[in-house]
Write a structure and sequence with these properties.
The chain is mainly alpha-helical and about 270 residues long. About 70% of the residues lie in helices and about 0% in strands. It folds into two domains: about 1-135, Orthogonal Bundle (Tetracycline Repressor, domain 2), CATH 1.10.357; about 140-265, UbiA prenyltransferase (Four Helix Bundle (Hemerythrin (Met), subunit A)), CATH 1.20.120.1780.
Amino acid sequence: MALYIPEFGAKYIVRAAILSIGCFLIMAYIFVYNDWADFSLDDTVAGQRKNTFVYRGIAPRQMLLLAAALALSGAAIISLVSIALLPIALAMIALGIAYSLPVAGLKGKAIPIYASALHFVGILLVFLFGAMAFGPLDARAWQVGSYFGLVIMAGHLVQEVQDFSGDQSARVTTTAVRFGKRRMFALSFGLFSVSFAVLYLLADAGAIPSLARYALIFYPVYAWWALRAWKDGLQEGRVRRLRNQYRVLFAVMILAIAIAALVQKPN
């Protein structure tokens, strides 16, 4: 949204706040629905039962109702910004169902490649929310949104590498289980590497603040972390540590870009 807010005016700030709340609720729905759908799988994986909502005294029916309430309230709040955003909100809800639907052969999480594609599309839609809330879609929205989709897709592959043992024991055919965790980690490394190049090109073309070009200096940091995880055998704890590290790195990069975009706005 920082790229598309026209100016620091009260009406734009309120609109951004309302949209942020709506997006947050829909993202919360996706996580809650996924937890509900994966309950039976988590219950079969050693060490996971204590992490389930049932263990904490929440019934599956209550969890499903919470997911539905979050989805509906999020869509309703987003429609307050613009009714034109409602189809995108509903598409995001549908993507959440497609990824987690606990039906054999239809569960997106268990369909190699498809699961990562759902992440790409989902994050692209989130970015398009911010663009459409303040004006018509343009090529820049699709380009920058695709960058974020690329980053999230790469991150999802790393998550699958982290969860490899549990998914394999639960017979969930993720992309990592199907093709091997080392191959998928190498693919995620390639996608992250491409994302740094894409970010530079977007900044060079003026699609985002020129400050983003300097994000390339962080690439060796990410590459070093990834290489260490690879040398350590991609153990679950080591991969989890890598995810925490690059999350902080990308958060700092994106926050800097957002601030740079905002300071250029008229008061």
